[in-house]
TrEMBL record, chain A:
GO CC terms, sorted: cytosol; early endosome; recycling endosome; trans-Golgi network
PROSITE patterns according to UniProt: PH_DOMAIN
Single GO biological process annotation from the record: retrograde transport, endosome to Golgi
Protein name as annotated: Pleckstrin homology domain-containing family J member 1
Pfam families according to UniProt: PH
The PH domain, residue ranges: 1-78
Coiled-coil portions: none
Domain of life: Eukaryota
Automatic annotation (TrEMBL), chain B:
Gene3D superfamilies: Pleckstrin-homology domain (PH domain)/Phosphotyrosine-binding domain (PTB)
Record-given protein name: Sesquipedalian
UniProt source species: Mionectes macconnelli
UniProt similarity note: Belongs to the sesquipedalian family.
GO biological process terms held by the UniProt record: endosome organization; receptor recycling; retrograde transport, endosome to Golgi
Location in or out of the cell: Early endosome; Recycling endosome; Golgi apparatus, trans-Golgi network; Cytoplasmic vesicle, Clathrin-coated vesicle
């Protein structure tokens, strides 16, 4: 496998990659239903649920940067945000007896319901 | 531009619940170099909203989407089109195409506009930050409550209190990273719920999705599918450039496929 130098940019739940001297991306990975794995030193990989053996590998300059990327990418999906929201909502409700989403007028929306997004 | 299209199609069609779905008519956008206008036409498509992604399919049973709209850096507004119940998704990037969609009634139109307006990742992130703060405040007033039990103002909130010594995170359900449930628990804790010094700010409803901005991962790196030392920040909103490319990507695929199909038709093939 040939490794190529790329500029990699995390934008919401997409990982764009560029040739280092170009302004437009040559590719993107949607980061939903994916797994981020720390591989050997300085290396992490991204793989997807429907094709788990296919890994997109990335080598970083240092182990520290590798860890930063792994942490950032694990939290990069919309699904992760949704779960966080549901979790916080539930905790606040347990602690205060109030639904924090009510005042925002979004408490009934499907995307914020506890239990609907368990897979 | 490459995309992990199998994964995208899988995400679009898998049984993870959609945030909204339904038939809409989508205005066909003609390229500006088509000098002769045959008037506007619409195509009926099956739309599925999952997170910040709006997929559309030729029909409800299709196994792959024919298009994808990434709902970042956009506004959703009612439309002065000739059609009733029309609304548009418009992007901050003036060069990006708008999507004009038509619902079949007032209620469905309103439901779509509402769902799409709040679909962005940025909006979600905002709401999560708000809740994080609220949880911290709840923790804090709980702790304060314990220290000075004379504080009657907090007494009304004692009904559902858990032990403050036990960080709420202890009870968390297994937070599964990136929605990857079949691979076991990812064990990601959604941010800390520490109690900072914070005076109880008045909670305001999260504003409508901000027009700009997204987090860029920091990367300094080296060779190989590398992370370059320089994080280039183009002055011209690189993010919408990226998403425009994504929108065009799907459009091109379909144009190419259609041409191919038409060629074959002409040649009398199936």
């Amino acid at each position: 496998a040939v490794l190529k130098k790329r500029l990699v940019k995390l934008v919401v739940n997409f990982l764009f990659y560029f040739r280092t001297d170009e302004a437009e991306p040559i590719g993107a990975l949607l980061l939903e239903h994916c797994r981020i794995t720390k591989e050997e030193e300085n290396v992490f990989s991204i793989s997807f649920i429907e094709e788990p053996e296919r890994k997109y590998c990335f080598e970083c300059a240092s182990e520290e940067q590798c860890q930063e990327w792994v942490e950032a990418l694990k939290r990069a999906s919309y699904e992760f945000l949704r779960r966080s929201l549901i979790f916080y909502r539930n905790e606040i409700q347990k602690m205060t007896g109030k639904d924090p989403l009510e005042q925002y007028g979004i408490s009934e929306e499907a995307r914020f319901q506890l239990g609907t997004h368990q897979q | 531009m490459k995309l992990n299209e199998r994964s995208v199609a899988h995400y679009a069609t898998c049984d993870s619940p959609a945030d909204h779905a339904g038939f809409l008519r989508k205005r066909v956008e003609r390229h500006h170099h088509h000098a002769h206008h045959y008037g506007t036409s619409y195509q009926r498509r099956w739309f599925v909203l999952k997170g910040n992604l709006l997929f559309y399919f030729e029909d409800r049973e299709s196994r792959e989407p024919v298009g994808l709209v990434v709902l970042e850096g956009c506004t959703v507004e009612l439309c002065e089109a000739a059609e009733e119940f029309a609304f548009a998704i418009r992007f901050d990037d003036a060069g990006a195409r708008a999507y004009v969609l038509v619902a079949d009634g007032q209620a469905t139109m309103e439901a779509w506009v509402k769902a799409l307006s709040r679909a962005s990742f940025d909006y979600m992130r905002l709401v999560v930050k708000e809740l994080e703060k609220q949880l911290e405040e709840a923790c804090k007033s709980l702790a304060a409550c314990r220290k000075s039990p004379r504080r009657s103002s907090s007494s009304g909130r004692k009904r559902h209190l858990s032990n403050p010594a036990l960080l709420p995170l202890q009870e968390k359900p297994s937070i599964l990273e990136n929605g990857y449930s079949t691979w076991g628990s990812g064990g990601c804790i959604p941010g800390g719920a520490a109690c900072p010094d914070h005076d109880g700010a008045q909670s305001k409803p999260p504003p409508l999705p901000p027009r700009r901005r997204s987090a860029t991962g920091s990367a300094t790196g080296s060779p190989v599918p590398g992370l370059s030392p320089a994080m280039l920040e183009s002055p011209v909103s690189p993010d919408t450039v990226c998403f425009s490319k994504l929108h065009n990507w799907y459009g091109q695929e379909i144009v190419a496929l259609r041409q191919e199909w038409q060629e074959r038709q002409k040649r009398g093939h199936l």
